[in-house]
Amino acid sequence: MSSKPSQADISKAYDLIKPHIRKTPLFSVSGAPFGLKQPVDLKLELLQKSGSFKARGAFYNLLSREVPSSGVAAASGGNHGAAVAHAAHSLGIPAKIFVPEISSPAKINKIKHAGAQVVVKGDRYADALGLCEAYQASSGAIGLHAYDGFHTICGQGTLGQELEEQWGGDLPDTLLVAVGGGGMISGLASWFGRRIKIVGVEPQKACALHQAMAASRPVDVDVAGVAADSLGAKRIGETGFEILQPVLDEVITIPDDAITKAQTTLWQDYHLASEAGGAAAFAALQSGAYKAKENEKVAIILCGSNVELQKLASLTESH
Questions:
Q1: For residue range 27-84, what is the model confidence (pLDDT) as tens digits?
Q2: What's phi and psi for 98, nearest 5 deg?
Q3: H or E element at residue 107
Q4: Which CATH class is domain 7-53+153-318?
Q5: Which of 8, 37, 105, 268 has its CA at 20 to 30 Å from residue 154's CA atom?
Q6: Whether 120 contacts 132, CB under 8 Å
């Protein structure tokens, strides 16, 4: 089995997880606010179970791999942990989730609510991953990588198949995708190949893919900023980079202020509660960091909704 998923691998994953996930809506909005004549399609993956696209990869891992009695262990900035906790609870599997101290209370509470054991320790995701790997070695629990595993990328790639079915073959010109460790964008690239232009969007303060493309290999980066808990991978996934390097059209980096403005717009104009990472791809279009042509058909993945409403309210007031 290749570490790079094929369309057939992704379709197999979709058939298996379909009863366990939501088919999230495709929401078309006017392109006029962005200077476009065509409508903009928003894929509302922030309405997915557990609040992010990561439920797809979590369910596929647990449904397709042999899970021991000690269950599953995962390290996460929050969304992956919530997804694994939700999937494990749904399937009756014990789960232990390791999260760094920067994780949002909303995400930690979601993991606990799903019935998983939570360990909050370490400054960044890499610290939580080290603790998780040590626990796996001692307990025999299977690991479930947040973004750089074959099953994870296949699961996230089902988002591409679902989108294509919703578009009915009338594909957009461009798909804007937020990037953390690269699981979602590499899954989408595995499905679409070069049939559409895929543009990666990262915060300037957490840009592992941008730095990897510049260096022609994955490299360690410093991580900070408003989206660090969801897009704050220290290093892009090796498998993801292998998939993306030959097919990715562009990687854009955006400032934190553009992301928080996008969160505000999504809430005020469309009544969508998005976390910072979930709004990053939208921010690229709204801020002009991605300059679309007048007749270009653009689609955007809104990928996460695990945000405290008080935080969203304060952002709205500040903007």
A1: 999 999 999 999 999 999 999 999 999 999 999 999 999 999 999 999 887 889 999 9
A2: -105, 125
A3: helix 105-113
A4: alpha beta
A5: 105
A6: no
- Which DSSP state fits 6? -
- Beta bridge partners, 142, equal 72
Domains 7-53+153-318 and 54-143 are alike in CATH topology:
yes
Structure token digits, residue 228: 């660090």
DSSP string, 203-222: ETTS-HHHHHHHHTS-----
Position of tokens 């928080």? 260
Residue 272, classed as helix, strand or coil, is: coil
Burial letters 110-126, b for 16+ CB under 10 A, else e? bbeebebebbeebebbb
Burial class of 231 by CB neighbour count within 10 A (0 to 12, 13 to 18, 19+): buried
Which tokens in the block code for residue 76?
């996460």
Give the residue extent of every domain in the chain. 7-53+153-318, 54-143
Q: Return the closest-CA partner of residue 179 out of 203, 214, 145.
A: 203
Q: CA-CA distance, 9 to 158, in Å (whole number)?
A: 10
Scanning the structure block, which residue is given the tokens 């939700």?
Answer: 86
Distance CA 226, CA 282 (A): 15
Contact 148, 238 (CB under 8 A): yes
pLDDT reading at 145 higher than 50: yes
Q: Angle at which helices 150-167 and 54-64 pack, to 10 degrees?
A: 120
pLDDT category, 2, cuts 50, 70, 90?
low
Task: Indicate the CATH number for domain 54-143.
Answer: 3.40.50.1100
